[in-house]
From TrEMBL:
Transmembrane regions listed in the UniProt entry: none
Residues annotated as domain 2Fe-2S ferredoxin-type: 1-76
Keywords assigned: 2Fe-2S, Iron, Iron-sulfur, Metal-binding, Oxidoreductase
Any Pfam family hit: Fer2_2
Gene3D superfamilies per the UniProt record, alphabetical: 3.10.20.30, [2Fe-2S]-binding domain
Keyword Iron: yes
Protein name per the record: (2Fe-2S)-binding protein
Keyword Iron-sulfur: yes
Amino acid sequence: MAFVLNGKTQAIPADWAGETLLFLLRDHFGLVGAKYGCGVGVCGACTVIVDGVATRSCITPAESIEGSEVRSVEGLATDGVLHPVQQAWLDLAVPQCGYCQPGQIMSAVALLNEFSSPSDADIDAAMDGNLCRCGTYGRIRAAIQRAVEAT
């Protein structure tokens, strides 16, 4: 079984059948940006993009991504240049503790892949499943709007 991870074809080891995409990324590939938060797909800390869609990796079976394209937060920057969403996050000092931020960023990237100029309602709908215990929602919205302006 194989899939594309951040632009490179990767094999899914047979002994990883039954594991989640989150643990495949973290434990097999060493990509620890996606975080384990709730384990049931409601907090969004584990969000990655699978075939263009924001996906909760903690509830996605590893074998279900066969043939898919997976993008993690580690795969956003190109040649050392941050993705516009990442840059906006830094410019506006969005993170407080930072734990949820990779998932927030990936949901924002998926949103902007779908809508080049999302409305506030589009932003709210896309980000609704990402929880931030520090309450940085206002800065998250502002960063998404900044990323729209930058692209």
